[in-house]
What does this fold into?
Amino acid sequence: MTVHVVRMPVKEVHSHGSGDVSAINSVLLELTTESGITGWGEASPWPAFTGIVEASAAALHVHLRDLVIGADPVKVEVVMTQVERQLVGNPEAKSALECALLDVTGQICGFSISELLGGQQRAVIPLSFSVANRDFARDIDCVQSLWDDGIRLFKVKAGFDAHSFDLMRLTKLRSLYGDEIQLRVDYNQGLPAVDAVRRIRDLESFALDFVEQPVQRHEVSVMADIAHAVAVPIMADESVFTPFDALHGATIRMADIYSLKINKSGGMRRSHEIAAIARAAGIDIYGGCMFETSIAHAAGTHMLAALPGLRLGCEFYMSSYYAEADLAETEFPVKNGFVHVPTGPGLGIRPARDKLERYRCEMLK
Ligand SMILES: [Mg+2]
It folds into this structure.
């Protein structure tokens, strides 16, 4: 069991309602069985959202090490239940461990992770890019080059500057690309509760697919009031980490859509539990991610590929369009605006050793 702490620079600083991001800080977990099979997983915390990279590294290296060594990697749920009993929080570390176990299991039996999770419902998923540069002129250039690559879904990160700035960007994008562009807005908790309904109503003429996490994560009843008051669908992200959050959210009809992220929910299986609650409640789902390398992107892709009813796409754009480099041996597959579900046993993707060494800041064995 080896823990690699990596820091991957990004091409442009991105701004969000809850903070700026200038690098992807991740923990890659390398699990090797006695028979020599190696599985990989990634913990990708964001301090403003889930946690810190030092905590993920310590959770794996210090707290979970004894539990993992000697465990049967095929008994994924058995191991993860024990992990959850011993360690509160730390969903990113749990997600990395579950992924590495599933990667090993898949290689043992010759199935991809999405096959282990019930089978692929789809081979490709539409890709969304996040428009989040304070310098909108640079974003306009970026959107055009992505448009040329076939991307049609764009999520505008809002609420980190004036309301008029958000309206101006949406107006510009709609006028440049007409009805063909699918626009979404993510506030990352950035709207004041008292002003949220009024501001979101200002956005309704842009025919958005959804408005994401307008208010603070704990303001779940406020978000329910907003969802009931406005016509545009409201998506919960920071307010839904666990199946328990999802159940409470469904009870009060907090949102119309849940954003699924393996790194906030502690893995693919818990994400599927959230998706099951959403399906039972008539709540839609979406494929979100943290600031990640292609290893976590591949894991998220398998999780989504095995779910029925994914309509709104995913946002695994970072290794192709945001990070300085793709950490994987074979590039994370994005073509013509779609993520292609990795094929081959297990995760179907692994870090390249030379890139891992280049971007690694610490290794714990
Ligand atoms: Mg979000």
About this structure: The chain has two domains: 2-111+351-364, 115-340. The radius of gyration is 20 Å.
